[in-house]
Design goal:
single chain, 335 residues, alpha/beta, Rossmann fold, 2 domains, five-stranded parallel β-sheet, two-stranded antiparallel sheet, 14 helices, 38% helix, 12% strand, disordered N terminus
Length: 335
Amino acid sequence: MNPDNGKLSNTSRLYSGNGSPISARNLHLPLFQRPERMDAAEFYVAEKELADAVNVALTLGQPLLVTGEPGTGKTQLAASIAHELDLPAPLTFAAKTTSSAKDLFYRYDALAHFHDSHFRTEPLSLEAYINYEALGLAILLSHSPSAVNSLLPAAYRDKGPTRTVVLVDEIDKAPRDFPNDVLNEIEHLTFTVRETGKTFASSAGYRPILILTSNSEKNLPDAFLRRCLYYHISFPGPDRLKEIVSRRLPPGDQFTSEMLDNSLRHFHEIRTQPLAKKPATAECLAWLRVLQQMELDPANLKPGQMELLSLSYCVLAKTREDLTRLQRTLASRNV
């Protein structure tokens, strides 16, 4: 990539691929700083139907299950809700293939307990080995500090009683038994710590707001789905996509409104191609940042810029076949 053919920062020349260290080329490795507005909750744009679904979930006190293509804003929805409702940052549980039902509420450090029971002169209480996780913390925070402070990590003491947003991210990654095993706990917002025998229930006035996301990699049990409200985030149309990127894209003096329109038009053309994985909103934002740095307009390429545009497709394509298809399509248009 020739930096003279596009206005790029020095980061485009850090790695030369020929064994030459950057110190010999009078360059240095910069600190990476992601633009704050790219992830900031105040710049999140929810379509009206999604906002309506959130409001229904708030009214009924039920979990909201959100599906959609990866990169369409499912995870950031929780932060947006917390921001607009003046609540603390969401408590997040990232589901894994090894997750069990109790992991959503707490974890018991059996190894540390075993070690201390053999080597500590003054054993700690069993509570010292219980670490409360996202939904467990949210339920505890619904009570007054005097009732739960001794159970909470230092960062959460004296914070309650408060409502919190709990994000259970990619619940479809968890074992199939996971959703069934938390049916009662999610419906009634209560859980029991088996090791101590104590049961905790959410205070009625401070029920956690539960947002669940799924990439639909596998079907969730019917009994679980009946306890949730459901919304599918579709890929935004041209007008809404422009609104989203206009709010999140860092301002650039050289990236004009016309260049943005041309870039978005080119992006929508790319999505019409038969790709194995179509780029979503997150990839669009990242790609536009690259074009912004290069001052590159896909509809008005200057001499030597077609190669830059072709190379920028590595942000959008996620397979070798998709990248090859995009690059060949571009080459055929400029023969």
